C-alpha cells in the first residue's frame, strides 16, 4: 500500500509510519519541522531498508502549503491507499480567557489541514481502480476532546469537535465511492504535548498503541469499516 501521513515526524504520526514501514508499505510523509521529518525518514530507512519512503516538509496550517503537499502526492502518480490526517497541535486554555488568535490557529492546524488535503486528494482516490475492493481508507485523528468537553480544553476541543464533524460527513459521502473513513479518538498518549510527564507507572498510553489500531483497521475486509475508534488508558481519562 501507499500510505500518506501528516504530522509524521513525532508522536502518533511517527508511530503510524513505523508500523506501516515494518509491514513493508510505502510511505509519503509530511511534517512542519524539516529537520525532524528527515531524521524520522532516515531512522525508518535504516531500520527498514527495503521500504520506499519519501517526505516533504510543509506547514499544513497554511492552505497554500497544504495544496503544495497534496500536489506533490499527486505528482508521484500513485494509488493513495491510506491517508492519515494526523497533523495537529495543542494549546491549553479556556474560552473566556485564552489569547486572541488561538481558535484560528487551532482550527487551521487541527481542522483545515485535514479538510484541504483530503479535498485535494479525493478526486484521484474516487476514480482510482479499487484494490481488494476498496479505493482507499482515510483516518482522521480526532481526540477524546472531540467527544467531551474538559477543563482547559478551550479552542483545542472546539477544533477537534469540528474535525469529528468533518469526518462524520466524509464517511457518509464516501460510502458509495468505496472509500473508508475512520475517526480516531485517542485519550491521553505519551507524546510531546505531555512534556516531561513521568509515565513510569504506565498511566497513559503509548503512541504505538494508537498506531497498531490504525494499522489493524486498515487490514479488514472491503465490506467492513471501523467508523469510530475510541482508545483510552486502562485506568480511564486523566
Automatic annotation (TrEMBL):
Pfam families: adh_short. Keywords: Oxidoreductase. GO terms for molecular function: oxidoreductase activity. The keyword Oxidoreductase applies. It comes from the Bacteria. GO terms for cellular component: membrane. Belongs to the short-chain dehydrogenases/reductases (SDR) family. This is Short-subunit dehydrogenase. It comes from Lacibacter cauensis.
Amino acid at each position: 500500500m501507499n500510505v500518506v501521513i501528516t504530522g509524521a515526524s513525532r508522536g502518533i504520526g511517527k508511530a503510524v509510519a513505523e508500523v506501516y514501514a515494518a509491514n513493508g508499505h510505502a510511505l509519503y510523509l509530511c511534517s512542519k519541522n524539516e529537520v525532524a521529518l528527515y531524521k524520522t525518514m532516515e531512522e525508518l530507512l535504516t531500520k527498514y531498508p527495503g521500504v520506499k519512503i519519501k517526505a516533504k516538509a510543509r506547514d499544513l496550517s497554511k492552505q497554500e502549503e497544504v495544496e503544495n503537499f497534496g500536489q506533490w502526492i499527486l505528482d508521484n502518480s500513485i494509488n493513495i491507499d491510506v491517508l492519515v490526517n494526523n497533523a495537529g497541535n495543542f494549546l491549553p486554555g479556556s474560552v473566556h480567557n485564552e489569547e486572541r488568535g488561538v481558535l484560528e490557529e487551532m482550527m487551521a492546524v487541527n481542522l483545515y489541514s485535514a479538510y484541504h488535503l483530503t479535498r485535494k486528494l479525493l478526486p484521484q482516490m474516487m476514480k482510482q481502480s479499487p484494490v481488494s475492493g476498496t479505493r482507499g481508507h482515510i483516518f482522521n485523528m480526532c481526540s477524546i476532546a472531540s467527544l467531551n468537553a474538559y477543563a482547559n480544553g478551550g479552542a483545542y476541543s472546539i477544533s477537534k469537535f469540528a474535525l469529528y464533524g468533518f469526518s462524520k460527513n466524509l464517511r457518509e459521502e464516501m460510502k458509495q465511492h468505496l472509500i473508508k473513513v475512520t475517526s480516531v479518538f485517542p485519550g491521553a498518549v505519551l507524546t510531546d504535548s505531555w512534556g516531561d510527564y513521568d509515565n513510569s507507572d504506565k498511566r497513559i498510553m503509548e503512541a504505538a498503541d494508537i498506531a497498531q489500531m490504525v494499522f489493524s483497521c486498515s487490514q479488514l475486509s472491503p465490506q467492513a469499516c471501523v467508523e469510530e475508534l475510541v482508545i483510552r488508558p486502562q485506568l480511564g481519562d486523566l
